[in-house]
Amino acid sequence: MQPNLAYAIIHRMHPHADVGVADVACCLVPSVRYGMPMSSTPITPQDLLYLQIILDRIAVCASYQPRFGQAQAGITLADFRTLYGADHFYTWFGLDTPRVYAAHRAAGGITSIYRQIGIGSELLLRQIIRDQLGLTATQAQWAYTITTNTGTSRTLKLDARITLVDIQDGSRRQTVAAWLQHVSQTLGLEPTIATAMQGVAIEIRQGYKSKDAKRQHADVANAATAYTQGYIPVLLLLSNQFDTGVIERYTRARWHILRGSFDQDTSISTYTFFREIIGYDLAAFFHRVSPQLQQTMTHVLSSLLGVPDEHEATP
Predict the structure, then answer these.
(1) What is the pTM of this model?
(2) Residue 199: what are its φ and ψ, rounded to 5°?
(3) Whole-angstrom Cα distance, residue 51 to residue 299?
(4) Which of 31, 119, 228, 232 is the one with CA 20 to 30 A from 37?
């Protein structure tokens, strides 16, 4: 079983300390980054649970190995040298060296990092939505089944769902309902269609720079299906890294877009939406755990690039 990374990080910082939950809450403090003031709020046990969701995904990247079209799990440097060393063409160019392997590992590893951050963010945000709105796992998921051209069934899904009637707290239900009405107006939905909307189906992305036409086509179809079932499709971005052309296509398909900005409009900013509508300050959470995320990322990058991190290099 993989060790709890949240505690592993603290033991890495304080290897001789006897660390418990209370100690972790006291010593994990945020750093001042990007002009944001330091928070005096300590990390809570709840923060640790949420942090663990992301750290578990990022940790996967440290052991990344390139596949070179050979193995699903990737191949080692020794296997690579055997593979490329037996290929005369590549050896003529000197491509059978450890540096080439390291370059492939770094390139693929970076892609893996972004992918795992995206998966971790999806798991985290869905859990927060469940916790804040009192939803079950089934209530927080949106999926539907289609029949393919070959006659087989295929299940398609988005990352999260919020249905008004499922929200436990009456006050919070009213808040979400008012936001839903506002977004319906922003999207220019006809009043009869807006009235039929019972919630939102959410696709969560850490960013969106890919021009994958197949993925975009599927999401256009997802949006159409969501509307037929009474859900407004929402593309929720955690960063401001996105392709404007892709976003324009989603907008034309009547997706509502939430961006990773700090705009105070709940219909524009992911973080304002979470704070005011969901009832959880997501930006404050990331700010509190940023040192742990940064240190874990440094460790993973050092592993991928084959260089020691600062702690290992320090005598």
Answers:
(1) 0.81
(2) 170, -160
(3) 16
(4) 119
In this structure, what DSSP letter does residue 238 have?
S
Name the region of 173 (left: φ>0; alpha: ψ -120 to 50; beta: rest): alpha
- Measured CA to CA in angstroms, residue 177 lies from 162, 264, 277 at distances of 10, 19, 9
Q: Judging by DSSP bridges, how do beta strands 231-237 and 256-258 pair with one another?
A: parallel
Q: 5-13 and 45-59 are packed helices; what angle lies between their axes, rounded to 10 degrees?
A: 90
Sign of the C-alpha dihedral computed for residues 288, 173, 263 and 200 taken in this order: positive
- Other C-beta atoms lying within 10 Å of the C-beta of residue 315: 2
**Integer Cα distance of 240 and 186 in angstroms:** 21
**CA 252 to chain CA mean position, Å:** 24
Q: Which ranges of the chain would DSSP assign to H, the alpha helix?
A: 5-13, 21-27, 45-59, 77-85, 88-92, 98-133, 170-186, 191-196, 213-228, 244-252, 270-273, 282-305, 310-313
Q: For the segment 231-274, what is each residue's pLDDT rounded down to a tens digit?
A: 999 999 999 998 888 899 999 999 999 999 999 999 999 999 99
